[in-house]
Amino acid sequence: MRILAIGDVCGSIGCEYVRKILPALKREKQIDMVIINGENSADGNGITPDSADYLLNLGADVLTGGNHSLRRVEVYDYLDQNDCVLRPHNLAEAQNGKGYCVVDFGKLQVAVINLSGKIYLDRLNASCAFAAADELIEKAKSDGAKIIMVDFHAEATSEKRALGLYLDGKVSAFFGTHTHVQTADSQILEKGTGYITDLGMTGPIDSVLGVKKDIIINRLKSNDMSKFELANGKCMLNGCIFDIDEKTGKTEKIERIYI
Question: pTM score, two decimals?
Fold first, then answer.
């Protein structure tokens, strides 16, 4: 099974670029399933019902989230109602949404787990991602899922690497999100888990993580706390394709995507 995971989509400009690229990419690469991190898909941060529906209608099977998933109150009921739009499972104070789903492809079930890191994300009050992963992997197995995908939304590369190695052989693929910069370490770990520290982002290239570069430069240089604004211009789509054996649940091939 070929599963495409796409990095953090930034605002309407990122959503529009997904619309432009995804249909042809799915045909060319013969993609069976698409997972998109959509926690920044709404303009002005967060995710809304409209931005979620837009990405689902483009062909996403599951949307994962992160630290901005619950920023917009208008998405709370939507998260409760839509099984395939996730937020990190281990947000201790979250009252809406869930961090786990199973997509039924008939002969095959695929579980998707969404978790948050703790390092440099103190305000989220996330519980232990290792314990949460163990809990949800057992649930996935009891639900009959042969393939298990994990989106770990975390800041520190060390935390991502540690959890990825801990889950080697327990899940089919592990990919990090949040830092918006694609890492060049896509690999198949020793026990068969496909791994990449961060998928990257989908949005404007001439930006700082999707935000207008002058705003970020002035904030860092002069402590100018102007409101963030999405950049525009030429875009990129970052992600990773995992070729997974349907019998063993292990990754057989991995391919980074940068378009």
Answer: 0.95
- Domain locations in the chain as residue ranges: 2-206+235-258
What CATH architecture is 2-206+235-258? Answer: 4-Layer Sandwich (3.60)
Q: What is the pLDDT of residues 130-162, one digit of tens each?
A: 999 999 999 999 999 999 999 999 999 999 999
The alpha carbon of residue 158 and the mean position of all alpha carbons in its chain are separated, in whole angstroms, by 18
Q: What is the pLDDT of residues 179-236, one digit of tens each?
A: 999 999 999 999 999 999 999 999 999 999 888 899 999 999 998 888 888 889 999 9
pLDDT digits (tens, 9 = 90+) for 88-129: 999 988 889 999 999 999 989 999 999 999 999 877 889 999
User: What string of DSSP letters covers 144-201?
Assistant: T-SEEEEEEE-S-HHHHHHHHHHTBTTBSEEEEESS-S--S--EE-TTS-EEES---E
Report d(CA 139, CA 128) in Å as an integer: 17
Closest CA to 23 of 60, 76, 49, 64: 60
Which residue matches tokens 């002035």? 218
List, in order, residues 6 or more apart from 241 with CB less than 8 Å away.
2, 3, 4, 5, 29, 31, 254, 255, 257
As annotated, the active-site residues are: 68
Pairing of strands 173-177, 194-196: parallel
The token pair at 164 is: 């990825």
